[in-house]
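Lab notebook, bench 4. We co-purified these components, and the gel suggests they stay together. Before we commit to crystallization screens, I want a quick structural picture of the whole thing.
Request: model the full complex, all chains together.
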Amino acid sequence: QVQLQESGPGLVKPPETLSLTCSVSGASIDNYYLHWFRQPPGKGLEWIGYMYYSGSTNYNPSLKTRVTISVDTSTNQFSLELTSVTAADTAFYYCARSPMGTFYFDYWGQGSLVTVSS
Amino acid sequence: EIVLTQSPGTLSLSPGERATLSCRASQSVSSTFLAWYQHKPGQAPRLLIYGASTRATGIPDRFSGSGSGTDFTLTINRLESEDSAVYYCHQFGGWAFGPGTKVEIK
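Here is the predicted assembly.
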């Protein structure tokens, strides 16, 4: 049974860096695209970006200058870093995967609420 | 960038009824890239439909997807209480999802 679980601080001060990790169990992350999304309370879902397990990345242009997604195949985890956060970055953050060659996200994490506040 | 619009915003129906959810794109979308997701509070979003009409593994046949071009539909037959959720459409490659349709079961 494939499971993804986000973890990280629930509170981040501006203008620090938000860091989250997604732990994948039940399957190797090899040959998958690994994604991060966010949803501010009461607002829509936004795709932050993704990384192929081998290292190539693609980021949402609106966040590109502040986002880094990285992967650690030895621990079957991937991570999100978002720098210079503001209150506008307060959101539920979700990780997900998509099999290589497909165009959908087949498994997601439950989400992690990150609040940006001093 | 392609903008997805979903309607209605909220759908309130009784068990056993049919729900028809609409997803409209601002320009033509390849059906290959259109998916629907179900999201319940506190839970992981769940893939329902991909390629506009293919049910994901384990999804009951009460759920069906159709459409092409700019107009896509998710139909939920014989509604059950467990279908209460927000449903999102998404075009793979687009950074934003549709705004979602909230389905409430009376």
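Chain B touches chain A through 24 residues (CB under 8 Å). Worth comparing against the SEC data before the next meeting. Strands of chain B lie at 4-7, 10-13, 19-29, 34-39, 46-50, 54-55, 63-76, 85-91, 101-105.
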